[in-house]
Amino acid sequence: MQVKQATPNDLNTIMPIIDEARQIMRESGNMTQWVGYPSQDIILEDINNGHGFVCVLDNEIVGYFCFMEGEDPDPNYKVIEDGSWLNDKPYGVIHRLASGRKAKGIAQKAFDFAFSKIGNIRVDTHHDNLPMQNFLKKNGFTYCGMIYVSDGTPRDAFQKII
């Protein structure tokens, strides 16, 4: 599996993957995350800003994620409750990680890519997103507290430093 920069031409392949990821969330009991989100406009903004990436297996796009890095790439991470970040150094963040049922290992590939760029990664996930929380814990991420996303809803925040 390869990670490639997404292009606007990939949008018609990415959006069905987003829809399938949303369905997988519902099947695992996560009924409230990604309701009407992320929109095609948000994914296109990721792509146009150089933050959208696709996972490609056998010349087919099988996953999508947004990766940003540098000084405070996510303004929602400025305030954390019931804990603290592991450090205040520049970090990378993954958002909108989506995979369907066509391939396994997309989350691992996305995080391997992120860590190849910067050794300090923060991520947040919905409290009901147990598959993502299990992945993060299994892969050495530390629970750091709670942040709030743009719509005001809470997310569990994690960080890993290598």
UniProtKB/TrEMBL annotation:
Keyword tags: Transferase
Transmembrane annotation, as ranges: none
Gene Ontology molecular functions: acyltransferase activity, transferring groups other than amino-acyl groups
Pfam families per the UniProt record, alphabetical: Acetyltransf_1
All copies of domain N-acetyltransferase, residue ranges: 1-162
Protein name: GNAT family N-acetyltransferase
Organism expressing this protein natively: Flavobacterium album
